[in-house]
Amino acid sequence: xxxxxxxxxxxxxxxxxxxxxxxxxxxxxxxxxxxxxxxxxxxxxxxxxxxxxxxxxxxxxxxxxxxxxxxxxxx
Length: 75
Prior knowledge:
Strand order of the largest sheet: 1-2
Number of helices: 4
Shape: globular
Helix content: 40-55%
Order of helices and strands: EEHHHH
Number of strands: 2
Strand content: 5-15%
Structural class: mainly alpha
């Protein structure tokens, strides 16, 4: 993440990987599902019922704020 920018519901683990809060989910995991399958936030919530809407939307905001970098990682 860019220095000085914080995202509600997104945290960095010890390796600097963006995660959804304290969950097992990496932001890049949801970003890949969104990018490759075209899943909307609503579909991501159906596929991951243990996540809250605000967590999924925060992951998507993070994805679009870092779009080019993350797309290169998930291609």
